Every structure is written in C-alpha cells, then in structure tokens.
Amino acid sequence: MIIREASRADYPQLRRIYLESRRESFRWANVDEMTLDDFDKDTSEEQILLAEEYAQVLGFASLYVPDRFIHNLFVHPAAAGNGVGDLLLKRAVAELGTPVTLKCVSENLKALRFYKKRGWKAVVEEGEPDARYWVLVYE
C-alpha cells in the first residue's frame, strides 16, 4: 500500500469513498442529503493524501495545512480495519508537523476510539446541542 498526494484523476474514486463511508458510518446524519459533489465542496483548498493498493484508492485524508488541521479522514468501508486509516493518519502528522488537530463528531464513538488508541487527546467538546464534536490534538 502506498500513500501519495491525490491528483484530479483520483477524484471519482475519492468522491465515491467519501459518499459511501459517510452513508455507512454517519448514522446521525440524513444520508439522502449526501451527494458525490460533497467531496469537492468539503475539501476545497486542502491537500489530499490517499492510500492506494493495486491502482485502487482505499481511503484519503484532507489537510488544511495553514492550521495544521486534519479536516477529513475516510476509509472505504470494504477496506476498514486493514491499517489504511492508521497509515493515512501517520502520514498526515508527518506532513503537518506537531501539534496537529482534528475534529470528530461526538456521536462517532468508533472514530473517537480510533484516535485515542493512537495517542490523540480530546481537548474540548464544542458545537450546538445537535451537532457536537470533539477537538483532538496530537503533540
């Protein structure tokens, strides 16, 4: 498996991963409102790293470099549990340097466990009552 910067040619696969992953794991969200175009809108002005194996994109991380912020980390549901997210997270930290931050929806307990297991610390819970998220930091 390789981690590399995404090119525009990768966007069709990245859009599909973003859509399918959110539909699979965002049980609190309205999946009918999710579209393929969300990827382009939600990663605008970000550096995108992807994990690839045998010309198949397995996941991606989008980074907002000026703030050392990992905005998105998504793995295709079929590739989950195979170390893809771990490799993307390590590469993102290497690219951004420390300290680095990210936000994780409070209801996404699986993701929160994933980050905490890798040494991320939950600093503060923010957001509106129906849209809470944790700010996590890695130093």
Q: Explain this structure to me?
A:
- The structure is a single chain.
- The chain is of the alpha+beta class.
- It has a single domain, classed as Gcn5-related N-acetyltransferase (GNAT) (Aminopeptidase, 3-Layer(aba) Sandwich), CATH 3.40.630.30.
- Helix content is 30%, strand content 32%.
- It contains 4 helices and 7 strands; from the N terminus they run βααβββαβαββ.
- It has helices spanning 11-25, 38-42, 84-96, 109-117; strands spanning 2-5, 47-53, 56-64, 69-75, 100-105, 121-126, 133-138.
- Strands 1-2-3-4-5-7-6 form a 7-stranded mixed β-sheet, with helices on both faces.
- Strand 4, helix 3 and strand 5 form a beta-alpha-beta unit.
- It is globular and about 40 Å long.
- One of its GO terms (molecular function) is acyltransferase activity.
- Pfam families: Acetyltransf_1.
- Its EC number is 2.3.1.-.
